[in-house]
Structure formats: structure tokens, C-alpha cells
Amino acid sequence: MMLTRDNTSKFVQAGAVKVHYHEAGTGPVLLCIHGGAPGAFGWGNFGRNLEALSRHFRTLIVDLPGYGKSGKPQIEGPRTSFYARTFRDMLEALGIANAHVMGLATGGSVALKMAIDYPELIDRLVVISAPGGLSLFQPMPPRPDTHNYYAGEGPSMERMRANLERLVYDPTILTDEVIRERYEASIEPEFMNQAPEGHGGKPGQTLEPLWQDLHKIQAETLVIWGRNNQTINYDNALFMLTRIPRARVHIHGNCGLWVPYEKMEEFNSNVTGFLSVDLTARPAQ
After folding, report:
1. pLDDT digits 0-9 by tens, 49-90
2. Residues 237-257: what's their mean pLDDT?
3. Please, which contacts does 197-205 make with residues 24 or more away whose CB atoms are closer than 8 Å?
4. How far apart are CA 66 and CA 74, in angstroms?
5. Within a domain: residue 4?
6. CB atoms near residue 279 (< 10 Å)
7. Has this prediction a pTM greater than 0.90?
8. Is residue 137 domain-resident?
9. Quick one: pLDDT at residue 177?
10. How does pLDDT run across 96-119, given as a tens digit for each residue?
11. What angle do CA 69, 263, 45 make, to 5 degrees?
12. Measured in whole angstroms, how far is the alpha carbon of residue 236 from the centre of its chain?
């Protein structure tokens, strides 16, 4: 059966938050956490990877609280900690003792926070284009001006196209379907009024200084970046490599922030290999 947005859709009560997610496959659990931006949601970031990943893993693609079909709670304090607690509660509610956790951008920060605060839950960690490190060689490049998306004339397909073009190296790979999917999510009334990247949100609450605690992460970690990421320079990946004890880094040339989409086949293979290989095996002498 073809995996679709509808036939993989599920809900679970995770503490005080009703979390929407997509599920497919069997085997070790892989929790996938999307990034934050106007109209972002789990299927939009990772839905195109689900078929390949679900051949090897029980793959759960979540909507962050405030996004997609998940609940839209009022969040006090740093959102990264709130999200990490929510997904801890989600795993407990589903009877999952531990999981591989993979996050993109803001979702990568949440994955890092889970590995710092709840190490017993994490098997292996995949972090993609995520805040949480520091720039080693140069100042951070300017962030895309996504928080003005709702200002002035308001949302439009043209504005959404411009936002998404900043996330990839080659904008011609962005289909009208992808742009419309994200645009329609960005104009959902609840998202616009409540989500952190909606016009009523508080984007300044997103980040915590995770770089100070990266050395505490004990999970085997794969850090993935695009060399042409306009939002967070790839030397942040090298900083994570110096701080996370059991880390390795894969940097794609001619690639922006949205690696799972722009380098889909290589990304799927890379992640599957990392999560499946016996990292303790030694070569024969």
C-alpha cells in the first residue's frame, strides 16, 4: 500500500499536548522532528523520506506542538525544553522505551535537548542543519527574514516560494505542489494566531544555549549539513564534531538547509546506514 499523508496519520496524548504524527514500518523506532517556519509540519519536512525509512524502522514523523495538526498550547519559557518533554511523554504514552531521534533545524535542537536531558531514551541521534553549535570561522550568515512573512500584504504563494528558495541550493527542485502545501499550512487560522512562527508567536523563545552541554551527549551522533546553507553556516557542524564525543559529520556540497528533500536518496541511504551498522565491530586484523 502506498504511504500517504492520510493513511499514516495518528494522534497520541503526550502529557498535556495532543500530538499528531505519521507512522509506518516496523523495527527499531525512529522519531523524526521537523523544523520551525511559517507553515512547517512533519509531513512537509520528512513525508517524502517515509517510504524509504519505513523499510528499516518504525518511523514516527511528528508535528511539533503549535504546528500541523498537533495541539496549539501556550508555551512559557524556552520552547526547546518544552518540545523535548513533550516527545519524552509521547514515547512513554506509546510504550517506547528508547528510540533513534532525528531532527531538522529547530527539530534538530529538540533532538539535541532530548539527548542531553533524557539520555536513556536515545539510541542514536541524527542532527540536520540545527541550531545548537557555534560558528568557528566566521559570523553567522543572516537568517532568512521569515518572521515578516505575515507583515504588510500578508502571506502569498510568492512569499512562500521566496522563503523556501532560501532553504535549498537549487530552487528549480521546488515544485508548485510543495510550495502550495506549505503555503496552505501557513494560512491555517490556528497556526497564524498561535504557532511560534505565526504572526502571534514569540520566535525569540525558540533557542537555548545548547552548545554549553553538547559534551554531555553520549549517543552515537550523525551531524548532517549542506555547505550552502544560508541560515546556519556549515562550520556549526564542525563545532558539534569537536564537542559531541561520539559524533561524525556529513557535509553535502551544492546543498542548502533542507537536506532530506534536496539530497533525498543519498540522505535516506546515509541515515539508514548509520542507524543500522554495527559501530562496535572492528575490522579483521
Report:
1. 999 999 999 999 999 999 999 999 988 788 899 999 999 999
2. 97
3. 197/36, 197/37, 197/38, 197/40, 197/146, 197/147, 197/149, 198/38, 198/150, 199/150, 199/151, 201/66, 203/147, 205/75, 205/77, 205/78, 205/79
4. 9
5. no
6. 10
7. yes
8. yes
9. 95
10. 999 999 999 999 999 999 999 999
11. 5
12. 16
Q: Where do the DSSP E strands lie in the chain?
A: 9-14, 17-24, 29-33, 58-62, 99-104, 122-128, 220-226, 247-252
Q: For the chain, how many structural domains are there in total?
A: 1
What's 197's domain CATH number?
3.40.50.1820
- For residue range 8-42, what is the model confidence (pLDDT) as tens digits? 999 999 999 999 999 999 999 999 999 988 999 99
| CB atoms closer than 10 angstroms to residue 89 | 17
Q: Given CA atoms 247, 243, 262, 55 in this order, what sign does their dihedral have?
A: positive
Separation of alpha carbons 281 and 284, rounded Å: 9
Interval 177-181 mean pLDDT: 96
Residue 59 lies in a domain: yes
Of 79, 43, 48, nearest in space to 63 by CA: 43
Whether 1 has a pLDDT exceeding 90, the answer reads no
In a domain, 280, yes or no: no
b/e per residue, 211-229, with b = 16+ CB within 10 A? bebbeebebbbbbbbbebb
Strand, coil or helix: 99: strand
Q: In whole angstroms, what is the distance from residue 194 CA to residue 188 CA?
A: 10
Q: How many CB atoms lie within 10 A of CB 181?
A: 18
Long-range contacts of 43-49 (CB under 8 A, 24+ apart): 43/5, 43/68, 44/178, 44/181, 44/182, 44/185, 45/104, 45/107, 45/258, 45/260, 45/261, 46/104, 46/260, 47/5, 47/22, 48/260, 48/261, 48/264, 49/260, 49/264, 49/267, 49/268
| pLDDT mean over 146-169 | 88
> The domain containing residue 76 runs over which residues?
9-273
Look up cell 521537523; give the residue: 34
